[in-house]
Amino acid sequence: MEATLQWISANQQMIYIVILMIFLGIEIIGRVPSVLHTPLMSGANAIHGVVIIGAIIVMGRASEHNYLALILGFLAVILGTLNVVGGFVVTDRMLEMFKKKK
Question: Angle 85-52-95 (CA atoms, 0-180°, nearest 5)?
Fold first, then answer.
């Protein structure tokens, strides 16, 4: 417990930045008109691609006995991949709505 408190006190500024980024993201996304949804989905897909690469790097640098890092990295790769694929499917379906019907 004391190690956790020391880590929190050592990284207090980073924790504040993450909390502020969460609130800012909620405010920005909440005010986006529906017309811009498709470009934002493409941007979110790119961000999740970076998450996948970061998870692969974490798994590659983790010790073979560090099961927590390996499990979390594996989960990040799986969930990030699902999010990217799902985002592309949703974006493709939305773009199909704007095409002229034959």
Answer: 25
pTM for this structure?
Answer: 0.57
In the chain, what is the greatest distance between 2 CA atoms, to the nearest angstrom? 67
Write the pLDDT tens digit of every residue in 26-74: 887 777 776 666 667 667 777 778 888 988 988 888 888 989 989 998 9
Position 70, amino acid: L
Same domain? For 2 and 39 the reply is: no
* Residue 82 to residue 73: CA distance in whole angstroms: 14
Structural domain including 97 reads 35-102
49 and 86 both lie in a single domain = yes
Backbone angles phi, psi at 70, to 5 degrees: -70, -40
Asked whether residue 54 falls in the same domain as residue 23, the answer is no
CB-based contacts of 72, cutoff 8 Å, min separation 6: 55, 58
20 and 61 fall within a common domain: no
Residue whose C-alpha is closest to residue 79's, from 54, 99, 97: 54
